[in-house]
Design brief:
The protein has about 300 residues and is α/β, with parallel strands linked by helices. The chain has three domains: about 100 residues, NadA-like (Rossmann fold, 3-Layer(aba) Sandwich), CATH 3.40.50; about 100 residues, 3-Layer(aba) Sandwich (Rossmann fold); about 90 residues, Rossmann fold. Helices cover about 40% and strands about 15% of the residues. The chain contains 15 helices and twelve strands. The strands form three sheets. It has a four-stranded parallel β-sheet with strand order 2-1-3-4, sandwiched between helices. α2 links the parallel β1 and β2. α1 runs parallel beside α14, α3 packs parallel to α4 and α4 packs across α15. The longest helix has 17 residues. The structure holds 1,3-dihydroxyacetonephosphate and iron/sulfur cluster (SF4). The site of iron/sulfur cluster (SF4) has 14 residues, from α5.
């Protein structure tokens, strides 16, 4: 039994013993963010995973992120505290259906959001994250036809922003889909002038009210630099932990769902990782991400293009 163990101390001991690096996404529980060696958005985490000289990467995030780490750093042991930590966007895009979609549109390239399986990455030309999508899109010739998947809201946002028409895969993030426009407008009325910061996975009726749209890192950065003392945050609310740590004098309010609070906007997949499971993952070096080499190399091609083009 794990009762009576000082998990934080045990994790620190194992991290040294295993020469492990702990990477965490901003949507993880505060205690996991606080013990991580590095916290970041999907692009930052990919770069860290690629460059680390640790022997083990313990990934506090979801499976597609840990898979990306393994694709880029195949010689490392990559553990994910809970292998069921998936993503609704990944689930929306089964590789066989994506393949059929591509075959129907042979003159299109596939620009694909990193929130997908390794198999879908292998079927794609270029991967993007929310922080790199604009700059990557701007490097693709104007007359090139594009399929964008699996997030239709990120795709729609990019189309509105850049004027590039793309064929969109109909996936959504269940977390960002749950924000309520009515409740957001009520909250804005209660806090006149408070800027709204939103992730591009939000539907357009939420993005329409945003003063800043960007990846988690970019939202965090904006929140810390903004002169405003109250800000409304329309993304998974665990990121507010970093904001409150760095700017304790400011007030950060999570954008509400239909029930008027932000609890329904917590990512249920991210929430599967816990201190206990991280401890066990470091102790047992399980559950481990393994990717067949042919698939890994195919997926790496589209990820490498992202890393090159993102600058
Ligand atoms: P970023 O951290 O890259 O903005 O991604 C958000 C997200 O939903 C990750 O699952
Ligand atoms: Fe997937 Fe949304 Fe959770 Fe991110 S927040 S992991 S996109 S379900």
């Amino acid at each position: 039994s794990l009762r009576g163990l000082d998990l934080r101390a045990e994790i620190d001991r194992l991290r040294k013993e295993r020469n492990a690096v702990i990477l965490a996404h901003y949507y993880q529980a505060p205690e996991l963010q606080d013990l991580a060696d590095f916290v970041g958005d999907s692009l930052d985490l990919s770069r860290k995973a690629e460059k680390t000289d640790a022997d083990v990467i313990a990934f506090c995030g979801v499976r597609f992120m840990a898979e990306t780490a393994k694709i880029l750093s195949p010689d490392k042991i990559v553990v994910l505290p809970d292998m069921d930590a998936g993503c609704s966007l990944e689930d929306s895009c089964p590789p066989d259906q994506f393949k059929a979609f591509r075959e129907k549109h042979p003159d299109h390239i596939a620009l694909t959001y990193i929130n997908c399986s390794a198999a879908v990455k292998a079927l794609s030309d270029i991967i993007v994250t929310s922080s790199s999508a604009d700059i990557i899109l701007s490097q693709i010739p104007k007359d090139q036809k594009i399929i964008f998947g699996p997030d239709k809201h990120l795709g729609g946002y990019l189309t509105r922003k850049t004027g590039r028409d793309m064929l969109l895969w109909p996936g959504v993030c269940i977390v960002h889909e749950a924000f309520s426009e009515t409740e957001l407008l009520k909250l804005k009325a209660q806090h006149p002038g408070a800027p709204v910061l939103a992730h591009p996975e939000c539907p357009p009726h939420i993005l329409d009210h945003a003063d800043h749209v960007g990846s988690t890192s970019s939202i965090l950065d904006y929140a810390l630099r903004a002169p405003d003392s109250t800000l409304i945050v329309a993304t998974e609310p665990h990121i507010i932990h970093q904001m409150e740590k760095a700017a304790p004098h400011k007030t950060f309010i999570g954008a509400p769902g239909a029930d008027g609070n932000c609890n329904c906007n917590m990512c249920p997949y991210m929430a599967l990782n816990t201190m206990e499971k991280l401890y066990l993952a470091l102790r047992d070096l399980e559950p481990r991400i393994e990717i067949e080499e042919g698939l890994r190399l195919a997926a790496k091609k589209s990820l490498d293009r992202m890393l090159d083009m993102a600058g």
